[in-house]
Amino acid sequence: MLAMSACAGGDDGDDVQMQGPGLGEEMKDVSCPAGVPVSGIGLETPSQTKTITARVLDATPKTAARFDNSWTVQFLDAQGAPLNDVTINNACAWMYVHQHGGPPMAVTQLSDPSTFELKALNLFMRGPWSIELAVSSPSKGGTPTQMTACDRNGKALGMDKIALSICVQDE
Ligand SMILES: [Cu+2]
Fold first, then answer.
1. What is the 149 CA–ligand 1 centroid distance (Å)?
2. How far is the CA of 10 from the centre of ligand 1 (A)?
């Protein structure tokens, strides 16, 4: 008999940043809908306005696994050229079927200014997750109206938003 995981019981540790109405309840791992990728590497997803694309250059582990996953993400313009003026206003690993999640441990711009490391996205349950990025790019413009699910009070609004789908596969 497999032990089902509690989303944020005390035993999983480092869940201080976790938030959402499901916390404290016993929730079960779920299977992902068809088509949700199990590896972030190579994923490309356009922003809501389609002016910015996020491309996942690397992921550790390569296949998404429970708990810590670190991703290297590059931003591209609509023509596929690296976009060097992007700011990540907020990042969030969100398990939308349970309405819970939390931010990565750190977001770091790399020496190539179009790339960022999202360190330790905590995908703490099996199932479908959305890596939400509220972003701004002065060259693309817009108004700061976009928030991630982790930023319920809208304290770190972006001018655009990108949501990358990833599955922590059921076993
Ligand atoms: Cu969950």
1. 14
2. 15
Q: What is the pLDDT of residue 1?
A: 39
Cα(143) to ligand 1 centroid in Å equals 32
Q: What is the pLDDT of residues 94-133, one digit of tens each?
A: 999 999 999 999 999 999 999 999 999 999 999 999 999 9
Domain carrying residue 139: 36-168
Q: Provide the CATH number for the domain around residue 66.
A: 2.60.40
CA of 24 to the centre of ligand 1 (A): 11
How confident is the model over 31-52, as pLDDT tens digits?
A: 999 999 999 999 999 999 999 9
Cα of 80 from ligand 1 centre, angstroms? 34
Report the separation in Å between the CA atom of 125 and the middle of ligand 1, taken as the mean of its atom positions: 5
In a domain, 55, yes or no: yes
Residue 26 maps to a domain: no
Q: From CA 78, how far away is CA 59, in angstroms rounded? A: 23
CA–centroid distance, 127 to ligand 1, in Å, is: 7
Which residue, 108, 41, 131, 113, is CA-closest to 76? 113
